[in-house]
Amino acid sequence: MFAMGSSSWIRILFLSLTTLCSCFATEVTYDANALIINGERRLIFSGAVHYPRSTVEMWPDIIQKAKDGGLDAIESYIFWNRHEPVRREYNFSGNLDFIHFFKLVQEAGLYALLRIGPYVCAEWNYGGFPLWLHNMPGIELRTDNSIYKNEMQIFTTKIVDMVKEANLFASQGGPIILAQIENEYGNIMQGYGDAGKSYIKWCAQMAVAQNIGVPWIMCQQPDAPQPMINTCNGFYCDNFQPNNPKSPKMFTENWIGWFQTWGERVPHRSAEDSAFSVAHFFQNGGVLNNYYMYHGGTNFGRTAGGPYITTSYNYDAPLDEYGNLNQPKWGHLKQLHAAIKLGEKILTNSTRSDKDLGNAVTLTTYTSVGGSRFCFLSNTNNNTNANVDLQQDGKYFIPAWSVTILAGCNKEVFNTAKVNSQTSIMVKKSDDATTKLTWVWTLERKKDTLHGNGDFNANQLLEQKELTLDVSDYLWYMTNVDINDTSIWSNATLRVDTMGHTLHAYVNRRYVGYKFSQERSNFTYENQVPLKNGTNTIALLSATVGLANYGARFDKIKTGIAGGLVQLIGKNNVTMDLSTNLWSYKIGLNGERKRLYDLQPHIGVSWHANSSYPISRPMTWYKADFEAPYGKNPVVVDLQGLGKGHAWVNGHSIGRYWPSWITATNGCNDTCDYHGKYTAENCNTNCGNPSQRWYHVPRSFLNNDKNTLVLFEEIGGNPQNVSFQTVTTGTICAHVYEGALLELSCQGGQVISQIQFASFGNPQGKCGSFKLGSWEATNSRSVVETACIGKPSCGFAVTKEAFGVTGIANDLTRLAVQVTC
Question: Are the C-beta atoms of residues 281 and 237 closer than 8 Å to each other?
């Protein structure tokens, strides 16, 4: 026995832990055909889930559903402006705790992709950059600028150090197998010239120096320096080739849908085309496919960028905004993943040959050293189906714009155009407790601003985001004008050229009008205003609706009235330029400063409780108490009747709202034609309706007893029809080909209560309008009822034997089912 100092024990403990960690380390390497994880050659299916676009309580369910859908990995950006809103003041709490998020990913048995950026784009406010960067003297973002590079390196290093401390890199036994630096820079690099080229080289060197023990990637960067792996983003990446023949072919953003902006219809991407994109990518040597998004979620607070990105970031993802399965897309892709995984060992250890069969039909054969085969048959013709005879390997019908996967090159296991998964029609349901709300209200206090009293003054029109630093959407511009000849100026025209998104004007404490840009760019406000002899006060409230997040030098795009003109135009076009007047400024609303959305009492604020609340009145705060809807289904608040503003539940921001902006009445179709390359205009819905009517209220925001909804109504609306509802499965349909598996499931503890339609044969129509074909099995309904009634889920193989059918040979035999939960 001998004595040992405490420092010696610490060194031994440290060495022991280091040795223990290295025992569980995962080695990640690669070649052109595979990611090699601990010596195992892998194809990877991944999906984007952004931790700030959901809640901590939602994360486990979303991650598990991603795993159930056949994913191997979860990917997320890191959002700099949320983590460092003030320079050197960090926030990693609540749903910003990305370390906890990735630990849950690991606990679920999944890998992770860490996209540090730290520029993210992502339709996120200012591309994820904190606004304090913009105001640093001498800074230029995303280029060879020492001030910016220093800040970028400090933040990147902090994130890497946090991940290392939590042992989350695969080299430490964690789930993170790849990391990304920068983001889609190659798309806009030309706008930065030679400084852009040197910047991207610096990014690579800085990243490698972090010594994380897993490969680094750069997406959309054709000239990515070694050892960076350059990757592809888009709707289709089948023709992409890495800049190094030894690098794997990676599809880091398969745009599974598209984002929505205010005033636009809801875009969709079909399950058939989504699957086609993935299958064709792997047919052409793909190694990793990452869905953007797998769960889109919600732009809580003022995080939506754009400008004009909606609060919903549903993205038509396999998991919808609330975390429900988006069927049939989720199920169809799940079956695709399983089919491709059947050939994983062959696809990652083989030679490939392509054979042109004519008429845009290609047979791709992968053959291993031992002679095992795995094949893809693709038909890239937009409208012509194909019948292919592979002699001893069989005959196959290949619909237009589809890919068939052949196990052993002689057995069809999947076709991208044949959707066998259920279709779920989601509905919103109200209950008695939350149907009618009782409102109290108060007007936004404007006495100071309407008298021209701000916080600071300047003899110029200042840029909005430079002043607000993203603490508010709103900035007051105020000035005084002396008039001594009313014969010229009594009915003057106020003209304002603005780079803002909306503008409210007041003259002598009187509201004179409102205008917004329908084109998401600069606009001119003009209105006749009454002026008097003596001093006149003009107060202009400029509002932004998300800051630009994409493009070369997007950070230089001005907001507010900066760079414009403010003029008074009198009789005979006599013009008075007010641009260089003494202007007073005030950031934000008084209601925001008093935090009227909080549940705490507010000194000096009177909420009026009379039943005759103001409607269609701009700048009004409304408040109502409500009970949480019963059950566990996701909750939404229906804000129809309101104009534009911001909403909070129990002090939690649920985002901006703008239901008064109605979408175009044309451009929507009852059916979605998936043939041919997808564009965001292909398959739209919601014509002639509010861009977004329902707003997600996560269950974790709600109390068991009293809850409070607060609205700031900017342009004037009527809250009488506002109500809380739940999102649940209404009608479920399936159209399953013979030989495939019928799988039906309800949600939220519901069971299948009724079989509305069931026909095994050649049924016609679609979900909601199925009808009998020329023949059917007489026991179609009874077979489905026996298997499904009273159960939360059911399933069985759809075969002639299951329905007692004999003597009929038809490749198009199928089962159509429609049920309610």
Answer: yes
**Inter-CA distances, 502 with 307, 466, 496, 543, Å:** 11, 17, 11, 5
Residue 12: what pLDDT?
Answer: 42
Question: Would you tell me how many other CB atoms lie within 10 Å of the CB of residue 222?
Answer: 13
Domain 6-326 in CATH 3.40.50.10780? The answer is no
pLDDT tens across 503-542, in order? Answer: 999 999 999 999 999 988 899 999 999 999 999 999 999 9
What is the distance between the alpha carbons of residues 477 and 460, in angstroms, rounded to a whole number? 10
266 HSE (CA, 13 A, CB side): 20
Burial of residue 772 (number of CB atoms within 10 Å: 0-12, 13-18, 19+): middle
Number of H helices, E strands in the chain: 15, 43
Determine the pLDDT at residue 431: 75
Of 679, 805, 801, whose CA–CA distance to 255 is shortest? 679
759: nearest Cα among 736, 783, 781: 781
Q: What is the pLDDT of residue 9?
A: 46
3 state DSSP class of 21: helix
Helix crossing, 271-283 with 329-341: angle to 10°? 20
CATH topology for 427-442+593-726 is Jelly Rolls (2.60.120)
Phi, psi of 251 (to 5 degrees): -110, 85
In the structure encoding, which two tokens stand for residue 8, read together? Answer: 């010696």
Maximum separation of any 2 CA atoms in the chain, in Å: 106
pLDDT of residue 500: 82
- Helix (H) or strand (E) holding 478, with range, is strand 474-483
Residue 14, pLDDT score: 43
Q: Distance of CA 755 to CAs 327, 424, 764, Å?
A: 19, 14, 17
Domain 738-820 is of which CATH architecture? Sandwich (2.60)
Residue pair 543/302 in contact (Cβ under 8 Å)? The answer is: no
pLDDT at 810: 65
Where do we find the tokens 């009026």?
A: 608
- Measured CA to CA, the distance from residue 127 to residue 121 in angstroms comes to 4
Mode of pairing for the β-strands spanning 176-181 and 216-219: parallel
**Residues paired with 455 in a beta bridge:** none
DSSP one-letter code for 482:
E
Low-confidence residues in the chain, pLDDT < 50:
1-22
Q: Is 0.85 surpassed by the pTM of this model?
A: yes
Dist. CA 74–CA 61, nearest whole Å: 13
**Sheet of strand 361-368, all strands in order from the earlier edge strand to the far edge:** 350-358, 361-368, 373-379, 402-407, 411-415
Cβ burial, residue 130 (10 Å; 0-12/13-18/19+): buried
Tell me the two tokens of residue 698. Answer: 């996560």
How far is it, in rounded angstroms, from Cα 416 to Cα 269? 13
Q: Which two tokens stand for residue 106?
A: 């690991």
* Residue 512 backbone zone (phi > 0: left; psi -120 to 50: alpha; other: beta): alpha
Enumerate the β-bridge partners of residue 527: 494
What pLDDT, in 10s, does the model give residues 609-641?
987 899 999 999 999 999 999 999 999 999 999
Fold classification of 445-588 is: Jelly Rolls (2.60.120)
Residue-level pLDDT at 433: 53
Predicted local distance difference test score (pLDDT) of residue 410: 98
Element (H, E) at 515: strand 510-516
**pLDDT of amino acid 6:** 44
Residue with tokens 């008075």: 576
DSSP assigned state of 389? E
Which residues are registered as beta bridge partners of 493?
528, 569
Spatial contact of 658 and 647, defined as CB atoms under 8 Å apart:
no
Active site residues: 184, 253
Amino acid code (one letter) for 687: C
pLDDT of residue 610: 80
Which positions ≥6 away from 618 have C-beta within 8 Å? Answer: 504, 511, 514, 643, 713, 714, 715, 716
For 259-270, the DSSP string reads --BTTSPEEE--
